[in-house]
Amino acid sequence: MYEWIKAFHVMAVISWMAGMLYLPRLMVYHADSAVGSVQSETFKIMERRLLKGIINPAMALTWVLGLYLAWSAFGFKGGWLHGKILLVVILSGIHGFLVGRVRAFAEDRNDKPARFYRIINEVPAVLMALIVILVIVKPF
Ligand code: HEM
To answer: Which residues contact 81 (CB under 8 A, 6 or more apart)?
Structure first.
């Protein structure tokens, strides 16, 4: 059973990360589109569907299954696990921040330049690399 839960945990992680890497990339282009233009309205639909259809449910599933694994096999013990949970909390904070940016774009009140979203785009990738090293190498 544990291996099955882990398989579904990894599937949820892949879906969440795909969205977390793609959403700020959409915003890079959205920030450069004129308010009211066809592109801008299309980006709004893409962002909303990506967030509601994939990113939000994938994050919830990653958390539920990850916490089950952490509890059932490790009793929430281990430096690597504590480090991992801390990094996932930061990743979830960025997720929350992006939810706010989707809302700002939807209401035509984005005030950040494309360069800002280019930088934000790198953060989930760095966190993901550190999280995967912690859970697979378990260095401490
Ligand atoms: C709070 C959320 C999370 C918790 C509590 C959690 C916890 C766990 C636990 C306990 C395992 C099993 C480790 C083992 O059997 O050795 C696991 C597996 C895994 N987790 Fe998470 N996880 C969470 C979120 C994430 C995220 C966000 C990522 C990637 C960005 C991730 C990537 C992985 C991978 C790749 C595995 C498979 C490792 C392996 O067994 O080879 N997890 N997770």
So the answer is: 70, 74, 134
Tell how far the Cα of 117 is from the centroid of ligand 1, in angstroms. 27
pLDDT in tens, the chain (140 residues): 999 999 999 999 999 999 999 999 999 999 999 999 999 999 999 999 999 999 999 999 999 999 999 999 999 999 999 999 999 999 999 999 999 999 999 999 999 999 999 999 999 999 999 999 999 999 99
- CA-17 nearest atom, ligand 1: 30
Distance 135 CA to ligand 1 centre (A): 6
CB 131 within 8 Å of CB 94: no
Tell me how far apart the 2 most distant CA atoms of the chain are, in Å: 53
Ligand 1 center to 69 CA (angstroms): 8
Task: Report H helices in 1-113.
Answer: 2-31, 38-50, 56-74, 79-106
Q: Which protein residue has the closest C-alpha to ligand 1 atom 23? A: 66
Which atom of ligand 1 is least distant from the CA of 6?
18
Measured between alpha carbons, how far is 116 from 40 in angstroms, rounded to an integer?
18
